[in-house]
Amino acid sequence: MHEYKINQYIKSSDYSKSPFRYPGGKFYALKHIIPFLDVVKHDEYREPFVGGGSVFFGKKKVESNWINDIEPEIINVYDQLSNDAKFIHFKDLFNNEIASKDRHKQVRDLSVNSELERAFKTYYLNRTSYSGIINKPAWGYKDGKSSPPENWKNFLLNANKKLQDVKVTNLDFEKVINAKSKSKDVLMYLDPPYFLADQKRAYTKSFELNDHNRLMKTLKNTKYKFCLSYDDCKEIRELYNWANIYEKSWLYNTANSNGESRMKGNELIITNYSVIL
Ligand SMILES: C[S@@+](CC[C@H](N)C(=O)[O-])C[C@H]1O[C@@H](n2cnc3c(N)ncnc32)[C@H](O)[C@@H]1O
Prior knowledge:
binds S-adenosylmethionine, 20% strand, 277 residues, 9 strands
């Protein structure tokens, strides 16, 4: 059986950044995750749980790229970013924007009537809310710590470049994993909601035990290569005892009643290809 050797570790900050802040975002994990993807030759890449897209934006694009999430609001923003005819209007909505508690409340209460307005609202709330949570947004912008609105347009311009010719969908993960391909070299990175974390607040749709089981069965049957990240717990170790499991630890942002902080978590990287570290 072929073994892939990882011999290069670089800092997470050396990778390109996502335009979003996102609960469960993998920015601090990039230096651990991307080497697992770079070792595998692939000309098609799929990310069924893209969320804020830290890994997609950090990774090099290949010939064919597909990002997906079940959260319609975040996918609507990707749609505005990836489609040039829409992006022309979207990017200018942030000219002279401000970040203040009053403006946050005003945007939160906006009733939106078009995809463009919905995308504006989502992105504004993502940049200014506690932990980037758009589902139940609470003011969380900190002067001097958070990225100011004058930087946002650059984030959007960079994202628009990266998203050229990328397929963007709003589907359940199973459809993305099972979709047929002309290519023999398909690689998927999957970052589902964690098994133990309480994510009721962070995401619109909850991920239940049945979904974790469904994901495992779908991955067990796939003929494509996959790399999956999860929280380290005995249930996940048991579910994936047929695959390769690598232990890692990285920092992640967490929201609690005292504000936001960074915690170190024990994580698993699970693959159906063998990697020598
Ligand atoms: C841990 S987050 C992904 C974070 C992402 N890797 C990042 O760096 O920002 C998990 C994502 O899975 C999505 N999700 C939950 N259930 C899903 C389903 N059934 N199919 C597809 N996506 C789903 C959530 O909306 C959320 O964006």
